[in-house]
Amino acid sequence: MIRNVSIAALVALTLSGAACAAPPPPMPPAASIGPPAAGDWRTPDPENLMVIDTTKGRIVVELSPEVAPKHVERVKGLTRQGFYDGRSFFRVIDLFMAQTGDPKEDGTGGSDQPDLAAEFTFRRGVQTPFVQVADQTVADIGFIGALPVMTQSSMLMAMTADNKVSGWALYCPGVAGMARGETPIVPTASFS
């Protein structure tokens, strides 16, 4: 059971055991690994932290509004309404995922809020807080906050109208995400 959810809770906690889209960068030689320095740490924004107390312990998840702003705002709003209080993890698949947040406790429910358009990709510019860990010439791999992401190469920013490149989250162990129904929600446009 989820107890004392503060700040926000999630619709589906995805603890993916699947490999990330790219192999991790090579580890530095053991002699160069030491204790972290003060500059290796950052303070997450407390407004974007999700704290879930369970019978198995506490789970802390950092939300990423830079990547999925509408979904983060929805999770925060539902949490403030107490929507997630008392929910159980109704589906747990070892080394793959754990799901919670569904009022029907089976993955078919939802809130009374309208469905959100998908936020599978985002745009990254020079102002986006991105920490690069690998440059694969055609793609950059790194972190936005605690979220592992892959984006198009930063070199392409100068060639786009908005000076940004496309990016997407990498679902590795420990990454949280929202589940979606099968029906795509696509913004409508009027052509006259």
In total, the number of strands is 10
Structural domain tally? 1
Task: Outline the low-pLDDT stretches.
Answer: 1-22
| Adjacency order of strands in the biggest sheet | 6-10-9-8-7
SSE order: EEEHEEEEEEE
Please report which band the strand proportion falls in: under 5%, 5-15%, 15-25%, 25-35%, 35-45% or over 45%: 25-35%
Largest sheet: 5 strands, antiparallel
Which class do the helix and strand fractions yield?
mainly beta
Specify the overall morphology.
Answer: globular
Kindly state the mean pLDDT as a whole number? Answer: 78
Rg from Cα: 18 Å
* Tally of individual helices: 1
Helix residue percentage: under 10%
Give the N-terminus to C-terminus distance in angstroms. 52 Å
Write the layout of secondary structure elements.
Layout: E1 2-6, E2 49-54, E3 57-62, H1 69-80, E4 91-93, E5 97-99, E6 121-124, E7 130-135, E8 139-144, E9 147-152, E10 165-169
Antiparallel strand pairs: 1-2, 2-3, 4-5, 6-10, 7-8, 8-9, 9-10
Keywords:
single chain; mainly beta; five-stranded antiparallel β-sheet; three-stranded antiparallel β-sheet; 10 strands
Give an overview in words.
The protein is 6% helix and 26% strand. It has a 5-stranded antiparallel sheet, with no helix packed on it. Strands 1-2-3 form a 3-stranded antiparallel sheet, with no helix packed on it. Strands 4-5 form a two-stranded antiparallel sheet. The chain has 1 helix and 10 strands; from the N terminus they run βββαβββββββ. It is mostly beta strands and 192 residues long.
